[in-house]
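Let us practice reading a record.
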Amino acid sequence: MAATSRRGRGQKGERGRAVTLVLDQASGSLRLTESDGRPRLVGVSLLPHAAALIAEAGSTGRPIRLLVAGEDERLLDADAKELLPVEEFGRLPVPEELPPPSTSREVFVCADAVYREAAAALGYRPLPHPAMARGDADASGWLFAAFIGERELFERIDVIPYDLERRPAGDWRLLGAIQAAAARRAEALGLQVQRLDLDVGLDDAFLLPVDREVSAGWSDHSVLERDPDRALIALRGRTTVDELPLHGAHGHAVALAPDPGLLSPSAPPAADQATLVAGTWLRTGTKVALEVIDRLPILEAKVLVAACPASAPSFQADIDRLSGVAPLDAAGTIASRHTGHPDNARVVDALVAELRAIGYCAWREPFMWSGQTRYNVIADLPGAGSWRIRPDILERLSRILVRWPRPDPPDPWVKAIRRLVGRSRRDGAEELIDEDRIGELPPWALRRELEWQLGLRPWWPWWRLCLVPGWGAGVVIVGCHLDSTAASDAGYSAATGPARGADDDGSGVAGTLALARWMWGMRGQLRHTVRFCFFNGEEQGLIGSKSYASALKANGAPIRAVVCMDMIGFNSDANRLFEVHAGYTDPAVRDASVPIANTVASWAASLGSLPPPQVYRGTSPSGGPDRTVSDGAINRSDHAAFHQQGYPAVVVTEDFFGNMASEPLADPNPNYHRNADAVVDAAYAADIICAVGHAVRALAS
C-alpha cells in the first residue's frame, strides 16, 4: 500500500487507540474536478461523524490513517496530507493486501463487510461507521438490538440507528447498535429491548420480503427474526442476496446500514436556507447586489403539452443498447448490468458519456459494496433559485477555493475574496471569513466554516465548476436503478451469467435518459434543480440509493420530491394500467408523498393516452388490493431510501401488484428477475415517461 505519511507510526500505541478510516459512503468522498480531461484532487468532503472523529483525533493526538477506495494513486500526491490532520492519506488496497494494525487496539472503520472481515483476520477491531469509533466507545462492546416504543424515546438513548419504522399498532420499532450500559438505560425509559444475534463489526443486516411458501435453504444463514412476510437476516463477508432462497417477491432485499441521521429531521426548505445565506451577505455590506427572482421565463404550457420526452422508437433504441440487443459502446453489446458483472462498469461509463454529450456535468458517485467500489451516476439541471447575485459570485468563489484547496496560512483566500466582494463598513472578506477565527481554526476546519458562510453547500458539487444552482433552489430527483439480475434462473452466476433486464430496470434507465435529453432544453427556466440519478446495487438491497440518500440527509440537502421509475415497460393487454406508489409506514412521509403521486396522475389524465394510474397511499407493506390501506412497493425500490430519510418520494411502475376485484387482473412481468426479461411495450412506456416528465417539470417550477 502506498501512503503519504506526515509523522512516523512508531509512537501510535503510546498516544491512544489508532483508527484506520476508509473514505466511503459512511464517511465521505474526495472532491475531484477535471483539468485537461484528467481528474484533479481539490479537497475532501467529510460527512458529519467522520469530521467529528478527525477533529477529536486532532485535539487528543489520536492517530488516524485515512484510506481512499477506487481512486488513482497519483491523485494522492505529496500535498494531499495537508487536506486533513491525519497520520497517513493513502489508497485502499484490495482486502487481501491490507497492512496489519500498528497496535492490538487499532480500529478499522469501513462500510464494506468484506474489508471488515479481512481487517478482523489481521487483528483490527472492525466497525461499520465512524460514529461508533468516536469518544471512548469500546469497539468490541456494541450490541445489535430491536427497540419498540414511542419514537420520542429513541432520541433519548445513545443508539446508532439501522432502520426505523412505524408499526401497525401505532408504536415504533428501531433496529440499531448500542453499548450495553445504554441498552440498560433504554429499558429503564420503558422501551422494549430485544438483543439480536448480529455482530456489528462483521455482519450486515438485511430485511427481505419472503414468499410464504419459501422454506428451503434457511439453515445456511443467520435468521435474526422471521414473520410470514419478511425476515431479518445477518450476512457476512462476500455472501450476497443472490445466494438466498427468496426470489419471487418484488424487491427481494433491503440492506440496513448504521445511519445516525435516521432520527434527525430533514433539512429546512431551500428558500429558508437561501434567506439565511443572503442575510449573511447583506450584513457584510459588500458591493454584491442581491435581488429576489419573481418570475422565470417558463416555456409556454401549450408547447410543453404538445411535446413528450420519449417516442416509442427512441425508447426501444435505448432498451436495445441496455439489454444486449444492440451495441452499448465501441466494445459491442453487454450481457448483464449486475453489480457483480464486468459489464456494469461499462454501463456506468456509457451513461456518464451520454449525459456529458447532452451537455450535463455528469459524475460518478462512489460507494463500497462486496469488496469493490461501485458507482451511481448523477447529473444536475441547476435551478435558478429564489435569489440572484450580481455579479455571479458563487461561481467565482468556488474557483477561488478550487484554485487554493489547502492554503496554510489562508492568506490567498482572504485576499481573493476581498478583491471579489469589495469593502464597505468593514472589509467584506473579513466579515465573511471572521478574522478572529482565522488564527483559531486549522485550515481544513476554517475551510468548512468559510464554505458554510458563503453558501457553498456540499449537497451540490460546486467544486466541479460547472454546477451552480441559484440560492433557494431545492432538488427534484428523477431516479432509476441501472443494475439488473437473473437470480431467479437456476444456476445463475452474477459474475458470468446474462441478465438482460429490459424491463427491470432498463425501462427506468431509458425513461430517465429521455427526461434528461428533454429537460436540457429547459435549462435556466426552472426554479429548482432537477437531479437525474441512476442508482447502482438496487437488486442487492437498494445499496446505491440508500448510500446516496443518507449522504444527502447528512449534508442538509433540500429535497422537494423524488420520482423513481422502476419497471415501466411490460404490458401484455389493452388495459395499459400503471401504478404510482406513495405509501409508507410513517403516515407523515406518506402524506408528503401523495401530492407527488397526484401530480403524476393529473398529467396522465390531461395527456389522455393512459387511463388514470392506480395511486397507492397505504401504510401497510402487506400488498393487499386496497390501495388506501396497503402498498406492496413499500421498501421495495429506490424511492424507499428517500422515504427512510423522511423525504417525499414515489415510484412509478407498470401494473405489477394485485388489483381490486372490480378491476382487470394485474399484469406483472412473468420474467421478473430472469434473463428472459427482454420484451417491452415501447409505446406504453413512452406514454408513462411523458406523464412523469410533465409532472417533474411542474414540481421543479
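A brief commentary: The longest strand covers residues 372-381.
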